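Chapter summary example.
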Amino acid sequence: MKAVLCADIGTSSLKAAVISFSGIVLGRSRQAFLRYYTETSAKEWFFSLKCAILDIQAQLEAKSQKLELCALCISGNGPTICAPTGETLLWNHSAPQNSYQGDSLFIPRILSFKDKFKEVWKKSDIIFSGPEFLIWQLTGNALSILPEKRYTNAYWSLDSLKSSGLSDEEAKKLPDFVSPASKAGNLTENAAKDLALLSGLPVFCGAPDFISALVGTNTLSVGSLCDRAGSSEGLNLCTKEPLNAEGIRTLPSVIPDLWNASVLLPASGTQFEAFRKKIERECGREISFKELVDSCVTSDGSKASLDQGKYLMLQTALQVRDGIFLLKKNINAQREAGFVPDSMMITGGQAQNSSWNQMKSTITGLKIKVPECSDAELIGDAVFALLGLGVFDSIKKGADSLCRISEIFEPQE
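The structure predicted for these 413 residues follows.
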């Protein structure tokens, strides 16, 4: 069976999966980072990928499943800045302030990296903008991934880098842009040996993780809606025209001429995870996410701690409802922007729990569709890899083919 290996670099873990050409996840692994809070986070990415590959290979061997691995694809979070020696400024880490006032999300981080790692900056010929660091380790080729040409202002141009105070030589540290699904190169002999893979395998560019997730949930046509529910949460609606309103962030879709309007809930998952840790301390044992959610949902009010968890879940579901209402309100104000959705795809950790999905469906009044692969970034990467291999001739056709629904939750009385 032909398949591709996809990996997504998150904030605290690396997720990887082997996915068939028809979208079946044959093996999947998540490797938690130990040093994600340090200044050399990127040094762990290659080792985490190696561990994920070994884990997946063991899964395949246990099932006596043989496959033909045809390519790799890498995506990850941003704007994270890395040097070839591994020094890292993660997208969510505090950084030295600077006077930059433009539209770029990356230039302030680049300037902060330069200020924070002065000697490293001077000695580095290349500066990477996130997952491109791992791609460079795999192929030896340096590049920067631009999701779509309309993202240039949110990234950088030679002029905007120079106007920020960087010299011509410093501006050239940032590699040239390529688009998702571009071939970054082939797996080098050294990388292949370390990863126990065949040398020469093609490596394709994914995208920033939220772009890969939108592709993996097929949020690529007007009116399609998805909820990326992890440590933070984002409601994403594909529109024909930009939605301009307070509380809504609009960015270009990866599909030309379309847009993505999003409402962010920055701490929904983090709050519940902190609550889970608190309950574990009280009980003196580990408690799985599913066990805790089910206990909170069925709480009868006799345990205050479980009621607190149920309140957090309800609060999150209500925030999701309010975010959807905000999007609908502005669709009505700009009728040409799209139609009102009656369903929503969900991806991320929360998507794996039926109780929470049912609660969200009932409170929002929308059908909740759960993809077969809850880590939609990996399906998005598979789309990019297969587009690069020529299996598909467009991102949309790839998403239509690989985005598979496993379950649908209907609103209840």
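To summarize the output: The radius of gyration is 21 Å.
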